[in-house]
Design a protein that fits this description.
- The protein contains twelve helices and three strands, in the order αααααααββααααβα.
- With 257 residues, it is mainly alpha-helical.
- It has a single domain (2-255), classed as P1 Nuclease.
- Strand 1 (152-155) and strand 2 form a beta hairpin.
- The longest helix has 29 residues, at 227-255.
- It comes from Costertonia aggregata.
- Keywords: Disulfide bond, Endonuclease, Glycoprotein, Hydrolase, Metal-binding, Nuclease, Signal.
């Protein structure tokens, strides 16, 4: 009986590990970056709604609620899968929703004056996470391989897959806390920040899709990945984390303008 329990625990643990998104560290970096770029009005409103919690503190809420089956309807909001040669909307969206429809729903509820305070707080936490997900390229990957989950690789001698490399391995093996990583990101000029914030979620999903296309070409099934892969792609990791935070701030500033 004990052996069966251990096996079941390991299976559950491995299953959960493969659902981690941008890693806890990555999402907190996005939240931390966004916090620095909030307008005074947005910061005040968010501080009140979240009872003083920072965006980094609530950034993993959408993953944490997966432990409660009553929130399963939100699982599909973490990603969107459509052909790499197509644009979002060319095909019928999933009936379960996706990261784009999820972000739009969050914004709608937060802006609605009739929404309850509890609902606004819930969907604000969701929004923080989903904008981060939108900037993880493999969350805009192909349906056929589950956004790279079926592309098995070896990461520094450990079994992994292309999705997990980008969700977890690259960031966690970098060895920095979220505060260290956030503070080590390149400094941005005001014109650069403004340029990053141009467009909308439809433009940003295309940008992530372009990166995903390159990532699919970056590995072979069963390939051993290590220092070189990290060296080649680390700048992209940093750029996507930073863009996620800067753009999250833009979305929030527009909500509370």
């Amino acid at each position: 009986m004990k052996r069966v329990t251990i096996v079941l625990f390991l299976a559950m643990h491995l299953s959960f590990a493969n659902t981690v998104i941008w890693s806890k560290t990555g999402h907190r970096v996005v939240g931390s970056v966004a916090q620095k770029h909030l307008s005074r009005k947005a910061k005040k409103a968010i501080d009140k709604l979240l009872d003083g919690q920072s965006l980094a503190a609530v950034s993993n809420f959408a993953d944490e609620i997966k432990a409660d089956r009553s929130f399963r309807k939100f699982n599909a909001w973490h990603y969107v899968n459509f052909p790499l040669y197509a644009k979002y909307g060319d095909e019928t969206p999933s009936e379960y929703g996706d990261v784009i429809t999820g972000i739009e729903k969050c914004i709608e509820i937060i802006k609605n004056e009739t929404s309850s305070r509890a609902d606004k707080a819930f969907y604000l936490k969701m929004l923080v996470h989903l904008v981060g997900d939108l900037h993880q390229p493999m969350h805009v990957g192909r349906l056929a391989d589950k956004g790279g989950n079926d592309i098995q690789v070896v990461w520094f001698g450990r079994g992994s897959n292309l999705h997990k490399v980008w969700d977890l391995n690259l960031i966690e093996d970098h060895g920095m806390s979220y505060t260290e990583l956030a503070s080590s990101l390149p400094r941005l000029s005001k014109p650069r920040i403004k340029a990053m914030q141009q467009g909308d979620i439809y433009d940003w999903v295309e940008e992530s899709q372009d990166i995903a296309s390159k990532l699919y070409e970056s590995v072979q099934v069963g390939e051993k990945l290590g220092y070189r892969y990290r060296y080649v792609w680390w700048d992209t990791v940093e750029a996507q984390l930073q863009k996620g935070g800067v753009r999250l701030a833009a979305v929030l500033n527009r909500i509370y303008e």
